[in-house]
Amino acid sequence: MDYKTVADWVLNHAPEILVFLAVFLPIVLWKREGDDSARRPESGWERLPGLFKLFWKPMYLMENSVGGALAAVFGKRTRRYMEFIGASGLPLTPGRVYVCQILSAPVFGAFGAFAFSLSFVTPFFATLFVLFMFFAGWQMPAISLQNCAERRQEEITKSLPFAIDLIGSAMRAGLEFGAAMRYYTNLGGGGALEEEFLRVIQDVTLGKPFTESLQAMADRLHIKSFTAFVGVVSYGAEIGASIAATLKLHGAELRRERFALAEQKAARAPSLMIFPLAVFIMPAVFIIIFVPVIMQYQATKTM
Question: Tell me, what's the pLDDT at 265?
Fold first, then answer.
């Protein structure tokens, strides 16, 4: 066997080999481990980003060994991931996020190498692009997790005023706070806020005090408006006062904050339109205006 020929073949087909190792090999290992549905989470699977679904079985296998080691080393980033996981409600751990980053980085890098192997560019630019794709693959799971957390926080913030009004109305009708919360969850409207309230009710059923369950929910979500809501409920429970009227005022305040937030987003719209206007619209306008002028000038010049 000519080892030089084999080495040359490996070097010439390095991108294809990397793609196989980064993509097909994890899938083969995934299938060999048995039925993946046995280890799928009971809730939250449909909300998982695609990268976490793709690498779910390798994440499960490498969570304690590789992910646990990285979680211990990067303590600050691990705490940030824990905040995102709590706010997003996804069935993840910081170790699984690290494993997904380790797996997705070579996949993105391999696709970048494969794309440039089909084009005629200098090795310098090809190397830069591969490194950029590798970095993007490392950051993509964290970015996806953060986006999921922000979307869920925004959904809960939008649903909170209606929920507070409904719970306050139920309390004014004679129900206590826990029963009013159960009444809200029994409506079956769905959504992230209902999921969190159901989790609070489950904790209370297991013997945890209501105020502690609500405080744990506030610590998971990291939403200022909900933290204020928990403070109102906890203070009313401590002094034994009725909080129905307070909840009504608090709901009105949340609606005003939501309207102010909408006004802020509307005020940012003109500044956000500057970039697409300058990049896509203005060049087209200049082409429409100046191209006929230039063509007429060239035609008169040749006459």
Answer: 77
145 SS3 class? helix
**How far is residue 112's CA from residue 12's CA, in Å, rounded to a whole number?**
16
d(CA 152, CA 230): 18
The single-letter code of the amino acid at 193 is L
Enumerate the domain spans of the chain: 3-150, 155-270, 273-302
Compute the distance between CA of residue 246 and CA of residue 242 in angstroms, rounded to an integer: 8
Q: Measured between alpha carbons, how far is residue 286 from residues 154, 278, 293 in Å? A: 40, 11, 11
pLDDT at 176 over 60: yes
CA distance 138 to 91: 20
Which residues lie below 8 Å from residue 207, measured CB to CB, with a gap of 6+? none
Structural contact between residues 89 and 152, judged by C-beta atoms closer than 8 angstroms: yes
CATH class label, 155-270: mainly alpha
117 neighbors 15 (Cβ within 8 angstroms): yes
- The span from the CA of 214 to the CA of 243, in Å, is 15
pLDDT digits (tens, 9 = 90+) for 30-56: 544 444 444 677 777 888 888 898 888
Query: CB neighbours of 20 closer than 8 A, spacing ≥ 6?
Result: none
Give Cα 294 distance to the centre of its chain: 50
Cβ atoms of 163 and 196 within 8 Å: the answer is no
- How far CA 190 is from CA of 163, 193, 195, 210, in Å, comes to 12, 8, 7, 22
Q: Which of 181, 173, 168, 161 is nearest to 247 (CA)?
A: 168
Q: How far apart are CA 59 and CA 103, in angstroms?
A: 9
Copy the structure tokens of residue 106. Answer: 């070579």
Q: What is the DSSP letter of 220?
A: H
Q: Can you state the angle between helices 75-88 and 210-221, rounded to 10 degrees?
A: 110
Q: What pLDDT was estimated at residue 145?
A: 94
> Which residue has 């993946």 as its token pair?
36
